[in-house]
Amino acid sequence: MDKIKEAFSLSAVTDIFYKDFFIEYNKLVEAVKRKNMSIDQEKARDFILLFSVRTIFLGFIQKKGWIGNDEKFIQNLLKEYEKKYSGKDLFYNRWLDPLFFEALNSSPGSKVAYRNNDFSVETEKKLQMAPYLNGGLFKQKQGYDDRKFFIPDKEIIEFFDFLFSHNFTIEENSYEDEDLQLNPEFLGIIFERLVNKADGAVYTPRTEVDLMCRLSLVKWLEKNINLPFKNNLYELFFREGEKEEDQKHGSFSEREKKEIIYFLENITICDPAVGSGAFLVGMMYVLDEIEQYLKLSIGIKDINAFERKKRIIAQSLYGVEVKEWAVWILKSGRAIRWFSAW
Known about the structure:
This protein is an all-alpha fold. The chain has helices at about 1-5, 10-35, 40-65, 75-85, 90-100, 120-130, 155-165, 185-200, 205-225, 230-235, 255-265, 280-295, 305-315, 325-340; strands at about 270, 315-320.
């Protein structure tokens, strides 16, 4: 049984997925280098990384049915293209370009490539009503999208076949669970592995991230709030076992709970080497968990989960990063985590 559990653990499945992903990723990089004579190795890798992030992000939002209520929108878009132009190598520039830079980068209702597109009437309607994400991921990137780089159909089809053979979910794992579906955290691991040899990116397991987040918040509250018994904060932030009836949540007066809520709502957190955002994601979950518990315990009617998480992300969480690829992943991850509360 231990061997079976190990074979299906998150780390084992991540290794398998990464191995297959890296093969498809390299195929795309080599195809781009072959078809675009003006591109060098580093630029090709970054361009395909950007393409991968955008495509994976589409996997998450179509899972929500937000593009024409179609959970397989991108696969169906490719099928529609192949019926008309199979082997013509037009999919990236003529079909994905309007999807990325118009449909997902403008308000719903806007015409997509008006009078100059190859879409069916049904597909055009879906594109017109696609959500405006406004996170920067689908804005044209200088040095990449403005260069009109080209990706052949064959490699795109193979990449889509591989990627969408997996199940996407926007429900991110807690520190206690291991879910084998593709979620934002899982893909953060993949991208950090993809670049770690060259750039020193290191993925920290979520149990360690969770510990760091909780300890940091406890120490910060100890420094800023005058509480008589410090152990109460540890009981509030740390579980003692699996069963809810075994948990302690600290002994606080209503005034003290309100004071803790005030400080948590106004905290500012910055990760100076943010990577794909594991520490900030951990902070979001801990802040959301503790704030929700404290408010419920004293009968404060809170805003809905979406608005609460949006406030935490927008007001409390900041990061600094020298690598542009990390910012791309963070932009997509930020939007996905907002969506997860809907």
